[in-house]
Amino acid sequence: MVERKDSREIVTILILCIMWYIVSSSNNVVGKLLLSEFPYPMTVTMVQLTSITTLSGPFFNMWGVRKSKSDISWGYYLRLIVPLALGKFLANVFSHVSIWKVPVSYAHTVKATMPLFTVFLSRIILREKQTCKVYLSLVPIVGGVAIATLTELSFNVIGLVSALASTMAFSLQNIYSKKVLCDTGIHHLRLLFILGRLALFLFLPVWLAYDLRTLISESVTHSISSKVIGLLILDGVLNWLQNIIAFSVMSIVTPLTYAVANASKRIFVIAVTLFILGNPVTGLNIFGMTLAIIGVFCYNKAKYDQRQAAKKESLLPSYSNVLDVKKNGSAFHVNGWTPQTHRLFAV
């Protein structure tokens, strides 16, 4: 029975990962095709936020996704939730600008620098120190992205800066999202829904004043083809599905497995977009992309080792507390610290 359950779980994870890779690749291809014909990244972002807002509520209620254990105060909303919604909006807009200006493969290579931003921002915000292995793993990431940038045939400064800005914004989101999830006990999918809805309502006036006015003044709204409308709708639905599948994978696997699956997804997206969109690349360009992705794998392994070491250290008693150790039967007792709470001294 246990083996059958484990087999079902492995198959479920495998199917979800395959779906995740396919949906993510399709979303990137559709996004590139859409922005090539309709260069309005803010409008594309607003359509995606609308998809999250309209589809998530009914789906989550039907699926039985739990709400937060306690009401979130307005002060907490203003201090953390609103900045997170702002970050989500800006991260999506910058991500779309990067895909619009540079090839998808290059944009995803630049986004491989997320560990660099995570380490840097965690050090500043959380005062979190890393091991030497973690810092060393950043070297191939930076080197790979630098090589890919220097050899990129379709290089664009705006595209590079936008990709870096979106990566930094996503890193900030990850750091603060963990705090919100821990503080409120809200389900991660509910948090996605809240952030999407809040970002939509907050930036609807900005979109009306900026993009919509531009679209009307340039008479673009009268010349939007049914193909562009279809791509907008498809991009919104695919983006929503990608978020749902990614969060589903995250909820059933370990952090290391998710990180490796995410890095593997990036390789899959780069390969698929190179094949379908056919942007020109050199051998050195591919080497830079590969080196950056290898660096991401090394970073994930180094972070996993760091977490395991920290966990083991927290379970072991400090020398100052071990004043009296005496053998009692088949187990040791350390000042009332018994095997029933921490099973480390069984013999």
TrEMBL record:
<dbReference type="InterPro" id="IPR004853">
    <property type="entry name" value="Sugar_P_trans_dom"/>
</dbReference>
<dbReference type="InterPro" id="IPR050186">
    <property type="entry name" value="TPT_transporter"/>
</dbReference>
<dbReference type="GO" id="GO:0016020">
    <property type="term" value="C:membrane"/>
</dbReference>
<feature type="transmembrane region" description="Helical">
    <location>
        <begin position="240"/>
        <end position="261"/>
    </location>
</feature>
<feature type="transmembrane region" description="Helical">
    <location>
        <begin position="106"/>
        <end position="126"/>
    </location>
</feature>
<dbReference type="InterPro" id="IPR037185">
    <property type="entry name" value="EmrE-like"/>
</dbReference>
<dbReference type="Pfam" id="PF03151">
    <property type="entry name" value="TPT"/>
</dbReference>
<keyword id="KW-0812">Transmembrane</keyword>
<feature type="transmembrane region" description="Helical">
    <location>
        <begin position="133"/>
        <end position="151"/>
    </location>
</feature>
<feature type="transmembrane region" description="Helical">
    <location>
        <begin position="7"/>
        <end position="23"/>
    </location>
</feature>
<feature type="transmembrane region" description="Helical">
    <location>
        <begin position="76"/>
        <end position="94"/>
    </location>
</feature>
<feature type="transmembrane region" description="Helical">
    <location>
        <begin position="189"/>
        <end position="210"/>
    </location>
</feature>
<keyword id="KW-1133">Transmembrane helix</keyword>
<feature type="transmembrane region" description="Helical">
    <location>
        <begin position="43"/>
        <end position="64"/>
    </location>
</feature>
<keyword id="KW-0472">Membrane</keyword>
<feature type="domain" description="Sugar phosphate transporter">
    <location>
        <begin position="12"/>
        <end position="300"/>
    </location>
</feature>
<feature type="transmembrane region" description="Helical">
    <location>
        <begin position="268"/>
        <end position="297"/>
    </location>
</feature>
<feature type="transmembrane region" description="Helical">
    <location>
        <begin position="157"/>
        <end position="177"/>
    </location>
</feature>
<protein>
    <submittedName>
        <fullName>Solute carrier family 35 member E1 homolog</fullName>
    </submittedName>
</protein>
